[in-house]
């Protein structure tokens, strides 16, 4: 394999539970109820996809971009004020080690660009990535393969020669549909969230189990 493409939420940033809380809060402000279980079905997908579905279900007259922007505002406020959002154990070391070996890196996240750049800069790895893509700026959301096909294209490397590191079922399906090799990070903290990682080529319970040698010998 010649390149590595990272998802962000749940792979680099331990943020999935916070995203759920902020989605629920944003919906509540607009008079729509939502449970954590309902949110879990949208792991790895964009906020546009999530809120679009809930607005339709509620037959509500809510501007999509308005509620999406409110959710992102709540999320960043929490991340900035709380200080409890941490990197996934082993993620930063893996990114820096890959960069030190001059392995091309891309970031392909469903989050909005501002949030992506905020976290990458906060953790000191922004400059490690050759390509940074936000699914919020694309036509289709994961599990559509668009974001991974575009990441490979921008890296100048065939999708079949890219390793994708994902944690969500939707992201794994997107990576495999793009013909990438997919490593699923199965976070033990989310083992009861109903995410099916069986389509991945490799599954690990810790990012520390992923070595450069293992990636390059795939």
Which shape, going by the Cα principal axes?
globular
Q: Give the DSSP E fraction (strand runs of 2 or more residues).
A: 5-15%
Q: Characterize the main sheet.
A: 6 strands, parallel
Strand segment tally:
6
Mean pLDDT: 92
Work out the count of structural domains: 2
Q: Percent range for helical residues?
A: 40-55%
CATH architecture of the largest domain: 3-Layer(aba) Sandwich
How many helical stretches?
9
**Distance between the terminal alpha carbons, to the nearest Å?**
6 Å
Name of the CATH first level of the largest domain: Alpha Beta
Strand arrangement in the largest pleated sheet: 3-2-1-4-5-6
Structural class, by secondary structure, is alpha/beta
Keywords: Carbohydrate metabolism, Hydrolase, Magnesium, Metal-binding
GO molecular function, one term: metal ion binding
Organism: Pectinatus cerevisiiphilus
Protein name: HAD superfamily hydrolase (TIGR01509 family)/HAD superfamily hydrolase (TIGR01549 family)/beta-phosphoglucomutase family hydrolase
Topology:
Blueprint: E1 3-6, H1 16-29, H2 36-40, H3 47-57, H4 64-82, H5 91-100, E2 105-109, H6 113-122, E3 131-134, H7 146-155, E4 162-166, H8 169-177, E5 181-185, E6 202-204, H9 212-216
Parallel strand pairs: 1-2, 1-4, 2-3, 4-5, 5-6
Task: Kindly describe this structure.
The protein has a 6-stranded parallel β-sheet, sandwiched between helices. Strand 4, helix 8 and strand 5 (181-185) form a beta-alpha-beta unit. Helices cover 43% and strands 12% of the residues. The model has no long low-confidence stretch (mean pLDDT 92). It has helices at 16-29, 36-40, 47-57, 64-82, 91-100, 113-122, 146-155, 169-177, 212-216, and strands spanning 3-6, 105-109, 131-134, 162-166, 181-185, 202-204. The protein has 2 domains: 3-14 and 86-216, HAD superfamily/HAD-like (Rossmann fold); 16-82, Orthogonal Bundle (DNA polymerase, domain 1). It has 9 helices and 6 strands, in the order E-H-H-H-H-H-E-H-E-H-E-H-E-E-H. By secondary structure, the chain is of the alpha/beta class.
């Amino acid at each position: 394999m010649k390149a590595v493409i990272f998802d962000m939420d749940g792979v680099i940033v331990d943020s999935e539970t916070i995203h759920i809380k902020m989605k629920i809060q944003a919906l509540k402000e607009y008079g729509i109820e939502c449970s954590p279980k309902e949110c879990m079905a949208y792991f790895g997908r964009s906020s546009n996809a999530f809120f679009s579905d809930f607005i339709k279900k509620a037959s509500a007259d809510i501007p999509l971009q308005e509620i999406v922007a409110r959710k992102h505002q709540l999320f960043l406020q929490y991340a900035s004020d709380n200080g409890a959002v941490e990197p996934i154990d082993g993620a930063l070391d893996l990114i820096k080690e890959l960069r030190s070996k001059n392995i091309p890196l891309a970031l392909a996240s469903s989050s909005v660009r501002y949030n992506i750049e905020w976290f990458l800069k906060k953790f000191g790895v922004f400059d490690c990535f050759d390509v940074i893509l936000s699914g919020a700026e694309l036509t289709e959301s994961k599990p559509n393969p668009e974001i991974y096909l575009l990441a490979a294209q921008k890296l100048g490397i065939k999708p079949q020669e890219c390793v994708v590191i994902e944690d969500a079922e939707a992201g794994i399906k997107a990576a495999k549909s793009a013909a990438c090799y997919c490593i699923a990070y199965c976070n033990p903290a989310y083992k009861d969230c109903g995410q099916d990682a069986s389509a991945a080529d490799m599954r690990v319970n810790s990012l520390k189990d992923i070595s450069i040698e293992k990636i390059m010998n795939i």
